[in-house]
Design goal:
The protein is an alpha/beta fold. The protein contains six helices and six strands, in the order βαβαβααβαββα.
Amino acid sequence: MTALVVYESMYGATKAVAEAIGAALGEHGPVRVTEVGALAQEPDGGLVTEDVDLLVVGGPTHAFGMSRPGTRQDARQEGVPVLSSSIGVREWLEEVRLPHGLACAAFDTKVATPALPGAASKAIGKRLRRLGGTLLVEPTSFHVQGKSGGLVDGELDRAGAWAGRLATRG
């Protein structure tokens, strides 16, 4: 199984989750973990080719959903360097084409507050299905401690276990 993990990350938590997912998937075959802006800058614009068996896409939850240019600008103004400073997952998913039926999964990071609605992963999952992908599991959230407080303890282990389940379903 060849996997591609594409992520958008502001303060590093989503990147850390993507890397944990990639490490777990790497036990089952080749995997590439890449930031969405870097992927979009490639000559083919981040084309997902037929040699990819599993596409995993994740990003931070901003304003109850996927980030937008305005929410990324707000993140840059927090005074902490941001990792994804060009395009986000939302814009990439508007341009990318997927092989029909491609196995997919969606994740996000969001503040660990039970009453906080919305999740970027749900919107990512909807877009992946609209593009012809097949979601292997329900979109999943991994929790952070505030905007830039890092991941809640145990979330990287949970991300690895989640990826292991993806590998057995792919």
